[in-house]
Amino acid sequence: MLTIYLRFCWVVDKIKNMDFTKLYQKYKGLWVALSSNEKEVLGKGKTIKTAIEEARKKGVETPYLFKVPTKIVSYVSEE
After folding, report:
1. pTM of the model
2. Could you report the per-residue pLDDT of 24-68, keeping only the tens digit for each?
3. 60-79, pLDDT tens digit by residue?
4. Which end of the chain has fewer surrounding CB within 10 Å, N or C?
């Protein structure tokens, strides 16, 4: 489970530089398992377990994970 957590944190850190508009439209409210280049959805589901299981059926043991929000809201950070 540690590998999954670390990969999830890595994707969250990169989100500010990525456009997830199409992902949001298609997978709103679901967990998605992404390929290492973040361009292919390998699995999806209401639970993280379902998304991982679908990705593993495609041969990817530790996919990048992302919870698609149910609605888009503004966020401002002071970094």
Report:
1. 0.69
2. 889 999 999 988 887 789 999 999 999 999 999 999 988 888 888
3. 988 888 888 888 777 676 76
4. C
Residues 6+ away with beta carbon under 8 Å from 41: 23, 27, 32, 33, 34, 35
CA angle 19, 8, 5 (to 5 degrees): 175
Between CA 59 and CA 48 the distance in angstroms is 17
How far, in Å, CA of 11 to CA of 66, rounded?
A: 7
Listed by start position, the domains of the chain span: 2-67
C-beta separation of 29 from 70 below 8 A: yes
